[in-house]
Amino acid sequence: MHKRILNGARKIFLEKGYEQTSMRNIASEINYSAGIIYFHFKDKSEIFHELHKEGFRLLLSQLKVLDKVADPFERLKAVGRVFIQFAQENKDYYNLMFIVEEPVKAPQAGGFQIAQEAINHLLDLVKECQGKGRFKDMDAEYFAFMLLSAIHGICALFCKDRTVNFVNKTDDELMKNGYECFVTLLEKG
Amino acid sequence: MHKRILNGARKIFLEKGYEQTSMRNIASEINYSAGIIYFHFKDKSEIFHELHKEGFRLLLSQLKVLDKVADPFERLKAVGRVFIQFAQENKDYYNLMFIVEEPVKAPQAGGFQIAQEAINHLLDLVKECQGKGRFKDMDAEYFAFMLLSAIHGICALFCKDRTVNFVNKTDDELMKNGYECFVTLLEKG
DNA sequence: TTATATTTTTAAACACTGTTCAATAAATAG
DNA sequence: CTATTTATTGAACAGTGTTTAAAAATATAA
Predict the structure, then answer these.
(1) pLDDT in tens, A61-98
(2) Within 13 Å and on the Cβ side, how many CA atoms surround B153?
(3) B interface mutation test: which of A83, A142, A169, A173 has the most B CBs within 10 A?
(4) Closest to B123 in 3D by CA, of B136, B110, B142
(5) Which nucleotides of D are covered by protein (CB under 7 A)?
(6) Dist. CA B159–CA B154, nearest whole Å
(7) Residue A149: other Cβ atoms inside 10 A
(8) CA distance B138 to B117
(9) pTM of the model
(10) What angle do CA A53, A57, A58 make, to 5 degrees?
(11) How is residue A99 annotated by DSSP?
């Protein structure tokens, strides 16, 4: 039943987004009453956290493919590309993971741990690059934050429809070529 | 009365954010009934658009100070700093302007025009830099999008409490030093 | 099998939300 | 002083997240 609710919730959540999904929507999707959800979950935010984790597992599984890329800098550049593609293909997961704020303010027990792992991976990757002579004059943590920001910025503008101000370019062109601009800067650093 | 509603709305909006503000909240703030708002505004989204414009006017007025900076690249770097400071000091305006999505999907007549102007300013600034030999091998539009993304990413992570994963650093340290990392990259480009 | 205890599930209720609308009050024009 | 706009209210509608007493289904024990 726990899984059944989660399946219904996932469908509606990813269809309508967090705010526009109601408990009654979820319940009717699986042909149960709304109250039942509160027997299996504490509240809406707990369901959110399950899907939040799910999203990170999905992203991390896609990033895992890059383990075979030997050169850390090449891997770093590819991380961004995978990240952006993930946002394009999973706009709503991305929203839940990086933009929806309400449920993050009161994180579950270890609810944000998987996000922490992802950050640590990025930090390690930066340090590995530094080990090979790249970005040597930079503070690893600030640099990692900057990397995440640059990539997230592209995805966030996309997810919140702020790409409309760049006419004559599709979202895909903007994101991919915009990121390659950033990569060009990285290569010179 | 139009202004009176807007004043009440601004207070509650910037206090509680878009989603958490109710028409009844706004009405009781100015000691009127909820219905009156619908006599002066079409709906909640119309109020949003007024504040959205207001936010852009505020940001643009802060950016105007930079007109006295002669060198375009110095001005470009300063734009980011002003942007970030604006987000820190006006978290909720920033949310309305760049993150809240619902009302942007159905923009009012010219409701997004002021945002368009801001983008055009950035684009001109990039081209001015290129005129002085900077970023010559880059496409101006993609480069401007990348710039906005990098800066917005910093602000968006901050506004949505995704800075918590970087321990031992305050938000202010992360944002300022993170941005300076980016500036270092720009200087090498 | 029957009786008891436990676990699920429901339906109704509570206090909220954005929005609409008939009735009313206030202001203005002739 | 009417007649006509204009402004304002309060109740209502359909929706929201959440709680809870009751009922149904299931498991356990005698």
Answers:
(1) 999 999 999 999 999 999 999 999 999 999 989 988 99
(2) 25
(3) A142
(4) B142
(5) 7-12, 15-21
(6) 9
(7) 29
(8) 22
(9) 0.91
(10) 115
(11) I
